[in-house]
Design brief:
Helix content: under 10%
Low-confidence stretches: none
Radius of gyration: 13 Å
Structural class: mainly beta
């Protein structure tokens, strides 16, 4: 099982991008889905998550008010809308599905590069 991210690219500071996370053999609506990012020389950072079933989202302080996570169950897709992007948001972004153990993400995508120029 693998998740697939798309929507990354190069954008100027203040711009927007929308990342998508989909899966062919996993019903994403049954899982808590998280978006993570990693830039060179830094550890992986949790950016946002959306719980399975009930409505519930969390955000890192660094992206609150700028990023929005959502899901479209009909399309089996989770989105990360990123507005007012900053150069510090430059990273490879990954989506992941949480397994049976809370906080442990068992299924990951290959990542999509987001580059924000100043």
């Amino acid at each position: 099982v693998q998740l697939v991210e798309s929507g990354g690219g190069l954008v100027q500071s203040g711009g927007s991008l929308r990342l998508s996370c989909s899966a062919s053999r996993l019903s994403l609506n049954s899982y808590t889905i998280g978006w993570f990012r990693q830039s060179p020389g830094k550890g992986r950072e949790g950016v946002a998550s959306i719980r399975e079933g009930v409505v519930g989202t969390t955000y890192a302080d660094s992206v609150k008010g700028r990023f929005t996570i959502s899901r479209d169950n009909a399309k089996n897709t989770v989105y990360l809308q990123m507005n007012n992007l900053e150069p510090e948001d430059t990273a490879v972004y990954y989506c992941a599905a949480e397994g049976r153990i809370a906080g442990k993400y068992d299924y990951w995508g290959q990542g999509t590069q987001v580059t924000v120029s100043s």
